[in-house]
């Protein structure tokens, strides 16, 4: 029996304990205490960061920089319906995005490294709060943590039910999109629906705005570039026979390239200005720039590829979903990959954020093994 086999029960127990205590971003108090307790006596220097986050550092003999690994900590506002005996004890909260598994994998790596007397290279384990929002990674970067620990490379993973169990999904370069949130308010002129000539119809203006926005990606962005602009919510008006005075719209922007993202924003402002002049309305827009694009370092991609069997590695297509791991990659080379969890036979097919999301816990050992192999590749021990 190898060391990982011996640790398997501990890693699964850790995951099940964490699964029962999901908490919102920056409020992961129980989770933080649990992680600290598990790290105690494992030979790491522990530091608090970003309110509820935990850093675990162990110094190696080499003068080379630090290799870092990150796990996200927060749960989701979802009422669990899995029926497992270790289900969430927090009403209306659930680890429906696999973060309990990510933490268990990182704690599994800590347990493994604790059995190695001397490390050749520094290691930093980052237990990060608030990945789901508003972005704990940004806070950690702004606190200069990567500089403080001289991080040269950072790795992260995500359990992923769209990929078969046992497969590792990754690609070099852009893998996940930059994202922004869009709030628009149109102020027009109300009046009786039977006398529209005395009004300025906010709903009509809103339809022109949506139509114009839909031309941005199709007519202003180069076809080979990936981009999305979607309006997902629209509301306004008070009665069927009254012309609406105020209309509110909400949407999202996604793009892989920052210049494309900025171009979409620029066209939004230009279209709004044109509609204001055409119809005599006022259009207020707030665009909140959220997470940057996840862009995988090519050399780190090659390093991972050298540690995973060819039959297990899948080069996936870029995805329009977002991840705040991107903030780390703006500062240092980073690699983010997917750990497949789809298992039709066992019924693990529900998507991320589903109230029935779950996975075969054997994949936790696979995750730890990949991290161990990365450590070997970079001569951590």
UniProtKB/TrEMBL annotation:
GO terms for molecular function: metal ion binding; N-acetyldiaminopimelate deacetylase activity. InterPro entries: Amidohydrolase (IPR017439), Bact_exopeptidase_dim_dom (IPR036264), Peptidase_M20 (IPR002933), Peptidase_M20_dimer (IPR011650). The Mn(2+) ion enhances activity. The keyword Magnesium does not apply. GO terms for biological process: diaminopimelate biosynthetic process. It comes from the Bacteria. SUPFAM superfamilies: Bacterial exopeptidase dimerisation domain (SSF55031), Zn-dependent exopeptidases (SSF53187). The keyword Hydrolase applies. Transmembrane segments: none annotated. Mn(2+) binds at residues 97, 99, 132, 158, 353. Its cofactor is Mn(2+). Pfam families: M20_dimer, Peptidase_M20. Residues 182-271 form the Peptidase M20 dimerisation domain. Keywords: Hydrolase, Manganese, Metal-binding. PANTHER family: METALLOPEPTIDASE, PUTATIVE (AFU_ORTHOLOGUE AFUA_6G09600)-RELATED, PEPTIDASE M20 FAMILY MEMBER. This is Amidohydrolase. It comes from Thermohalobacter berrensis.
